[in-house]
Amino acid sequence: MSTVGTLAVGTFRETVRDRLFYLVGFFGFVMLASTAVLSPLTIGAQSKIMVDVGLAAMAAFCLLVVVLVGSNMVRKEMDKGTIVTILARPVGRRQYLVGKFLGLNLTLLCMLALMGVLFYLVLAVAPGSFSVSYTGAIYMTLLEMVVINSVVLLLSTSVSAPLAAVAALGVFLMGHLSQSLRDFAAMQGTPLQQKLFSGLYYLIPNLEVFNIRGAVVHGDPVGTGQYVLATVYALGYAGLMIITAGAVFGRKGLR
């Protein structure tokens, strides 16, 4: 575990050196700009739109980090050959992947925490509603990014960084549409289409499990059971992806 922890901290420091946290400052600018743009609206509408924009911006910035950094995280060291030096030490390949995975998750956690503080500060001074329930949506965003991070980790061990990034974006989009596509195919599609979209539904992560932004924006209650289900689902799917990535990476020839 100390080896995994060292790799995780090293990955976190590397992302900090890449100045990813500038995105947090840009997020603050987006929130302040939205306040100015929405000021002519009525207080109730202004507040709801600001919350929606803020939560969506958090998810978008974190997705950007996962796709751009995660897709290149392992591949960069494989291409440079530095991974051979790392693995020459008492570091297993699975330990290496888990350390990278946890390090990027730590980066996401810190980014979401900072953006969450800015989010609440802007809402506190802006007219309209203020609710700690928005923290639930931020937590769900973190779980969603953990899942996408695990998918990117698997892709980065198999394909090039640009292809991994494009595929990860495809998984993100399909993850939010898979249930709708399966239901549509069940009603209107051919038997082949029904089997195809049903297979995609079970293969691709169902990211709608984590989408409670609409509910919290409109003040609808979100039960504890949904948070528990989302947590178990995220950890289970991410664990499966890491195990698969370890199996693929374990058979890969390095030079």
Provide a descriptive summary of the structure in words.
The protein has helices at residues 2-17, 22-38, 43-80, 82-88, 93-125, 134-156, 161-188, 191-203, 213-217, 224-250. It starts with a helix and ends in a 5-residue tail after the last helix. The model has no long low-confidence stretch (mean pLDDT 81). The protein contains ten helices and no strands. It has one domain (2-250). Helix 1 (2-17) packs across helix 5 (93-125), helix 3 (43-80) crosses helix 7 and helix 7 crosses helix 8. The protein has 255 residues and is an all-alpha fold. The radius of gyration is 20 Å and the shape is globular.
Q: Count all strands and give the number.
A: 0
Order of helices and strands: HHHHHHHHHH
Oligomer: single chain
Distance between the termini: 26 Å
* Average pLDDT over all residues: 81
Count of individual domains: 1
Major sheet characteristics = none
Unreliably modeled segments: none
Strand content: under 5%
Whole-number radius of gyration? 20 Å
Q: Which word captures the global form?
A: globular
Give the fraction of residues assigned to helices.
over 70%
Counting DSSP H or I runs of 4 or more residues, the number of helices is 10
Structural class: mainly alpha
